[in-house]
Amino acid sequence: MADGAGGDAAGRTVTMLGRSGCHLCEEALEVIERVCAELGARVEVRDLDAAPAKERDDYWDKIPVTFVDGAQHDFWRVDEDRLRAALRRAD
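The structure corresponding to this sequence follows.
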């Protein structure tokens, strides 16, 4: 495992699907931004209120939902170590 130096996840993207005013979303985004800054991954935030109806139906009760390179990674909370490991894992 890497020693924490940046660059491990360059080119990877973590997307958070959430809502404005959601305290769990705010907490999750703090973790996502910290891990992505450390590893060199990109952060993308999408607003569930502006998402297509199908996506709102699928994820409404799970926000925040996190995706790594488009694949669902987690929902409700973001575990820092688990996200870090997912970003370091080669696909």
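Residues 23-39 form the longest helix (17 residues).
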